[in-house]
Protein 1
Amino acid sequence: METLLEQAFNGLSVGSILLLVAIGLTFTFGQMNVINMAHGELIMIGAYTPYVLQHDFGLAAGLSILLGLFIAFIVAGGVGVAMERGLLSRMVDRPLDTLLVTFGVSLILQQAARDIFGAPNVDVVAPSWLKGSVTLLGVIMPYTRLFIMALVAVIVGGLSVFMARHAEGRRMRAVTQNRDLAAVSGLSPRRVDATTFFLGSGLAGVAGVAVSLIGSIGSQVGSGYIIDAFLVVIVGGLGRMKGTIIAAFALGMLNAYAEFWKNASIGKAIVFMAVIVFLQFRPNGLVSFRTRGLTS
Amino acid sequence: MTTTKNEYPDVSSLVDEKPPGEGVVAEADVTRDGYHPSLSDRLKTGWGRRIILAIAVGVLIAGPDLIGDPTRTRQWAEYLCYATVAVGLDLAWGYGGMLALGQGVFFGLGAYSMGMYLSLEQVEPGQLPQFMSLYGDNDKLPLLWRPFEHLWFAGVAAVVVPALVAGLVGWLVFHRRIRGAYFALLTQATALVFWLLLIGQLKLTAGTNGLTNFSEVFGHNKYDPSTPEFLYYLAAGALLVALVVARHTVNSRYGKLLVATRDGEDRVQFLGYDPAKAKTIAFALAAGMAGLAGALSAPIIGIVAPDQFAVLPSILMIGWVAVGGRATIYGPMIGALLVGVLKTRVSESHPENWQYFQGLLFIVVVGFFPGGLAGIWRKLSGAVSARLPARGGSADEPSRAPQTLATSEVAS
């Protein structure tokens, strides 16, 4: 029983990280049909942010994490917008090619990280208030994991409010739902694209700060999470936050239990097969736009 | 190297042996090169073609002698394997529009099939490969390994198993109309799963170390200077087979259906065809070619290890096709050979720059020259042939044809 609960906590924890990584992807994919393969490297940028703050600016651990969340959001978002303006906006009608171009960007960013920070992994010092754990129902819950869950909850809540109430959020929704109609109504989809990319990339940066708390970081830190996050986006459905949330926790749980039942590699294979089987029943993911159009 | 340059017309002319009757040419023009007869078309007909054929066959056969050094010959054999993968991958991506990011899986399945045979070739019959006694307590050969004592089985499995796996995955995905980026990401996930499984099943696959120490290769000693040459010809033969199959496929009725599916899946379905079937076949064919190349890469590279077939190398395979020119028969081959040579050269002198170079390659080629080298060649030869006397071209041919990607200018 305790091990079952333990795995449930594990699943929630993995799910919340997956959600944090995937949610930025969902925005850009849903609105622009762009799969940003460099998303993992934006996570990497976020992960190095608290490291730089601690290492080069000598900030205290706690401050570097909290300040890091904002700086990572801005920096990763900026890199994302630069990529969108410089490359992706030139190839709007070739979504699959944008995937490959962003892959090229990811290769360059990875090598750049190796050149700047060196090949060995580095560690971010966790602040003292994140050290230790609380035991509940016999399950050990490290503070870092709980912090990440809380962070995810705040971000998801904030995003929902932003999308529902804020004018820019409404514009994003409009463009996601029907690009042409939004343009006809006087929105500039390309300007909204930039906002979306900034937001999506910035969230990757925030995810990076979170990730830096639970392991050492190197140039590959993002690519370790990114494929699982892609699966979440696929299962969740085209750019819907609700679907992504459910999918992230479902896959996180499945992953935790499958790994516990067999081992890490078989566990991943089980998750993958489950995704394929799931798509047999809901090829468009959990939550999808209903349209009368033949092609989506 | 000069060989790269010459291998282009080389095999092109080699494969297309039947004299070009009127209809054949017109059809081929529509499928491959767009509409107006360009310099490249002129070179493919009549005497120009035969001369190029002769030179090209000569270059391919004389390859090892031209290269001279056995080490370089072995490297070229490796590039030829990559070229075979690229030719297959182009069927899926270039002609079928399926961005397969997990081609390393099929390459790896082929490589492991042959790797198992080679591991068993090194030991006396009834004995176990060394790693098995190291990692496990097997006293006899695991069931999975047993058929691979036979070369014929390893060879057949190397092609058939990848094709079947691709067929199964492809069918499950395509018949639910999962496509585009979704398909790409799923194939990428297969590469991750495959890699993890290879590492996880230590007792069967030797884990991260992989299968290696093939000192005896199909009865040839690895250190014999003539062995690389032997392997080179094997790889060249495989590439020729792949090219013949690819060319035949593309020019067949099925090939047209495949291209039509890429450009308008729903329309194809309304016309009564099954796009899922068309796509599955192309995907399986591509996987079979990757498997064949993988099988030959095992003795050529001399090691079969999971990292060769991980996520990153799988995506990089797309780069070969992109550089050469998608939706052309020979472009991907050129691309793979060229990138292979560049990789060796750059990593010999500046290994740390290779990844920057690769990243730039993806950005520049895919972003700004989606037609690849073939697209540039087409444009150049079009410019040249515009100055040559007209020869009854079919400029009005209603063919936006397979080159929608390659011919469309990049909006900038």
Note: The first strand of chain B starts at residue 211 and ends at 212.
Protein 2
Amino acid sequence: MLENQIKTHIVKSKTPRENYELSKKNIGYVDRSKATQFDYDRIGFMSGLEVHQQLATKEKLFCRCPAGIYQNKEEYDAEILRHMRPTLSELGEYDRTALMEFKTKKNILYRISNKTACTYDIDDTPPFPINPEALQYALEIALVSKFNIVGEVHITRKQYLDGSIPAGFQRTAILGIEGTIPLKNKNIRLIQLSIEEDSCREVSDLAHTRIYRTDRLGIPLIETVTYPDMSNPDEVMEACNYIRFLNRSTGKVRTGIGAGRQDVNVSCKGGTRIEIKGVAHTKWIPELTHVECFRQWALLAIREKLLTRTKKINWKISYIELNPNDFLFDYLPITQAIERNEKIYAVNLPYFGDILSHFTQPGKAFYDEFTHRLKVIACIERPNMTCNEDLDELLDKDIFQKIQTILHAQTQDAQIIFWAPEEDVKTALDVIEERALMAFDGVPEETRKSFNDGTSIFERVLPGADRMYPDTDSSPIPLDKNWIEKIKLSIPNHVSERYIQFKVWKIPEDCYHYLFTHNYYPLIHRIIQDFDLPPKYIGVFFGQKLKHLHGKYQNINFDINRLYDLFAFLKKESIEICIADKLLKLMFLHPTKDFNSLLNTLPFQKTQKEAILGKIDSIKASFNPRRKNTHKFDKINSIMGQLQPMSIGNIKLSELAKYIINTVE
Amino acid sequence: MSEDLFQGYKGKALETLKKFKVNVWDDAEIESTGGHFSGKILPRAENTNENHLVLKLSTGYNIGIHIETITKISGTNHPQPTFKIPEKVFPYTQGLPHVKLLGTGGTIASRLDYRTGAVIPAFAPGELYGAVPELADICNLETEKIFAVFSENMGPQQYIALAKKIGEEIEKGIDGIVIGHGTDTLQHTGAALSFMCQNLPIPVILVGSQRSSDRPSSDAALNLMHAMTAAAHGNIAEVMICMFGPTSDEYGFLHKGTRVRKMHSSYRSTFRTIGDTPLARVTRQGVFPIKTHYNIRRNDRNVNIIPTFDDRVSMLYYHPGMKADVLDSLIEKGYKGIIWVGTGLGHINKEMYPAVERAHAAGLHQYMTLQTIWGYVNMFVYDTGRDMMAKGIIPAGNMLPEVALIKLGWALGQTDDPKEVKRLMLTPINDEITLREPYNGYLVYQGGVPEVEEFIKKVHK
């Protein structure tokens, strides 16, 4: 009794919001802006990456459909319905959660466009031989990343039960293992590089129907996997950028939205390797990894708290169906559910008082872990639940008091109310009990979906740790030694070498990200070499001026190779390169005009250097100072100002200035 | 020492394994000129080159390492793993029909061994229950593996054994029979059993899968559930083939064993009834007849088993330029029956005529079927057809070529008398020849036509 009274005292003295804030403080959460390496070491921050990059091939990986052609959501020629059945695990048993998900019967619909998908894509035809173009591109990247290349490529099947691949598995193969990339302060070890087929794009996921498009499916992709060597969020982003720049440095990869995506693996000390899937932007990575690491830290704190109160063994929920007539529900999602004839259930979670409102992520509490599982596994659309510790206190306290009485709840318990179609109630109850039980173990294995505010939600259950098996539809591909040697000759220099070269060229550091992202190094290098131009000027020309115009005229399709032609033209016509700045803007505005017409538009007239310099004396003579004590620089500036328009392109402005200064002095 | 320590390795690879004293299944650390690799040594597949060693990495991926690059291998010994599906008792449910599942060798269900990638077949009721637990809601199941052959190796011997087995099981009082079978020759076995097992009181369902059961998108489990549903609860007592209707996981078709054909090498919805509609649709909810006339389930056990077959029959697929010696060699080798697969309405070239006459004189029974698959043989339209009939080739109506071959073997197993053989051949036992072809019996629509495209978009493929 005494024990109960103490708990009562602890549990009921705070509002959910207060408890949330207190628990946030207790686990030592700090904002990323204030976090130091000390904080990350304290919670044992550990992160690794799986960087996916589409290859710029003409065709898909295992069939001859064109790659890179996308369809709109409503643009399709046929639909195919499939269900994904979990296969037996190592011990001959189904994964509990996977089976639960299967039993709720998710209908997977594939929207097929004849242009972009064939019978292979929907698993009605066995694979064709691997696309040799893709294999070569992937090998190039594997060689740049200094991987040990395998002697023979074995196609393997990796199971996916979410339907993102119609076969239920992805064909994938290792090309290299054990590579390294250099970061500013340390080397990051790479586990492996594999080549694989891309998955479908999701159109929608509503209740029991998930719809996919099959256009992206089968596009060749490489995946570079790192060891969990990154020990703070910024390092993860740096490593990710490096790998992406490296991939792009070959010029053999696709760019644009979705062409490069990464899965970020994070764990804290005592936590679980959690995979945050499909992070589209590297700039999201620091916040995401920071938040996820602390989420795990919070879950471990919850575990400790629970274990001081009770044991996992024999723990179970109790529940009851609520008659809507007995309660005054005024929360709209519930009243709408009642109109749809859905069932409303109250669940008691013994000893979970103060746990449901425990901090997990900024703005999210432990009960959020339930709602997304109810959506994904039990197929119940959100909002699908609330609880007596909801931070927004959506329901009246009286309702919960009544429920607590009905369920004979103790004061240290917590209650969830959920609403669902009748056929999904059983799974929903299973889901709630299962997730609550997982809290006793700490951090459940799952994949998570990211948001740009840095938080993440439950996405899928992992289909078991082991889900790889050989592809019986294809035979091993021996890699010819001579072929590999030949590819070696054509690979680009390492990103880190290019970085050093940029430094040597004195190109400002703030240009690098843009230059690497767009892989402009080879072009810059060619321009500098072929026309013997000052590297710094060319670097800044690309890294600042081009970047500025690219941003300003985003919808203009600018052919970057014209810049080589521009400098070739200026060289041939012996025009001073400083005019390139002015021409660049005109090239954006008039993409089809030739360089001579652009010069006329400026306008520009070719004038001999001597003719321009000859004018200095007469301008100097006609200089009329407005004030008595005019400084000599005013005179210089005035002359410069008058001569500049005709000088650009004809004489270096620095040279002109020197002449004027000499004359005036 | 029956255990093979070097499964599949030959030549240089085998030498290398022996040199470093490592075996298949060992956990190995390998030094090579291409770097360091560690993993489990896997068996080498047959018919692959001798130059590579296969390693399973801890990530689950397999790779091959060229033998010539290897400088050192050190291994930790591991015995060959043993695989077994833990059996669970198939629950008995009072009131549910009893179904017998006969295995012929194809994989009906299986589980994967991720350590090795091996696919372990599941067949015993307990194993099947582990793989497809839904079966227990459909019927009470018994299983018996009667052969272990691939579909392409099924033949007359197996047809006869199956027919006798079906007779025995019916006598014992079973409510339905399901036969697991590879899909390549499903239609041949379907035809053979249709002729050998007449006047069936219960359903006999042949079922296979187009995608192996080790993949999440396999059609195996759903086909099996459909077949069990039709065998346990269906009212149609015929030899039927049960496979996917559309390629979508929606429903199956029950096809007559005598009118069905595999029409695509790999599609799930590959089996189609030719020249008619399927007998019925089947879902997990039950059997929904499409045809109005069929053989109805009975309580008696009066089946008529006629397990005969003479395998001295063959098929000639006519092509322009075909030489007479092809037929002559069959005569010479003592063949007794020939199924011609002719062009158009049932034609072969004049060059063959003397050989056709020689075959007729030698007592060979010759029947004409069609390359067009759909439609009737009609040898009256052109003179050449009449010529051929005069020389001894008998038109076989709209009997499918494979069905005609099986039926001729079955008939010749009973008699050599040309008149009797002809009577058996041309008297339909279960619609292998139909008197009429309904308009919806021939539907091969072409893509690109707007109204066809509209249909395809609307209805799940």
Note: DSSP finds 22 helices and 23 strands in chain A.
Protein 3
Amino acid sequence: MKRILFLLLAGLSSCVTGETTDDFGNVTNRNRTVIPITIPKEELANSVHTSGPQALVDPGKIYVFNSYLYVVERYKGVHVIDNSNQFAPKNISFITIPGCVDIAVKENTLYADNAIDLVAIDISNPTAATVSARHPNVFPPLPLPEDVETILGHSPDPIRDVIIAWKDTTVK
Amino acid sequence: MKITNLCSLIILVAFMGCQNSADSGSPTDMSVGKGGSMARFTISGDHLYALTGNNIRIFDIANPVQPVDVNTKTIGSGVETIFAYKNKLFFGTTTGMLIYDNSSKTDPQFISSVFHFTACDPVVVEDTIAYVTIRTGTGCWRGWNQLLVVNIANISMPQTVATYDLVNPHGLGIDRGKLFVCDGAAGLKVFDATNPLNLIQKASYPNIHAFDVIPLNNLLVMTGDDGIYQYNYTNIDSVKFVSKIAVGL
């Protein structure tokens, strides 16, 4: 496979080996390397939908609103947790939002970054949440994970494609 | 994440902040809820503020389901995170923080830039005090791990009035004088912050490893690497486990 370091990383990319440890001192990986996952830009407009609950895999940001918790599943979407019984919170639905890292809530509306688009999602019925408004091209390209050292792969065409995730890969 | 590699720090400085570790403290408006304070976008009252590179875009969300684009304003390069507190907007960069007056809601005005804290440093604000955790291993070249207590009564001249040594602090949260700090391997620390100049550590929970905390109405919601935890802190001498949503279930 042909691998091309991003031009935008020119001058920064020739990193030597190093160790990455987690916050509790354990060595997690060396030379964390990611590739961008992209989709054609026109697919963003139809990329948000609600389905049944899914297991947490890589939880990110949390937002607390009334008796609900909204938990970002990094780059993938938002878990809706019914927390009306704090002793037994219930995972009730999953809103797929490719490229999501950030959320906020006002009343019946969840705002999220759908990669570079800002979407407003009506969550009046959290098991049937739907996009009520979309503002395209609000945000810059998806930020990298915090501990990435190298980016591989072809540089995406910023006109045609949009980065929706950074996927870990290993150098061979 | 702790990184023992120089190049990675340079990449981090060049491309991102440390946006996953910040936390709460902002909204007193109960129609808005509570979440991270440093972000790609934030809500203050009837407006949503989105960072769009060098600019900020302001949306009117008086009708929440239909945001209306009302203004775009240039802030400057290198701005990575934003949070709102009362009539102020704080923009985090890798070298400092820009403070804007936001009384007008649609046309924020620059007040000052401060260098006590940066986009890498989680900040919470209560009244005239900002609590900031700084740690090593971020893209901001910090050589130490501390909790700073910063007086922002005079917003153009913030003053660090106390510092506390910590192990490897991440997210923090405050609710009515109760301060919670996620301190890496040292676990969760709970402080009585009734007098911000003299924080009293009430408890530490070495087994609670979390990255971020949101304290709201006596319920502490925490993100750890293996799930979401909830604790009751009605009595901060005895924080009680409530429930856990585990990863993978």
Note: The radius of gyration of chain A is 18 Å.
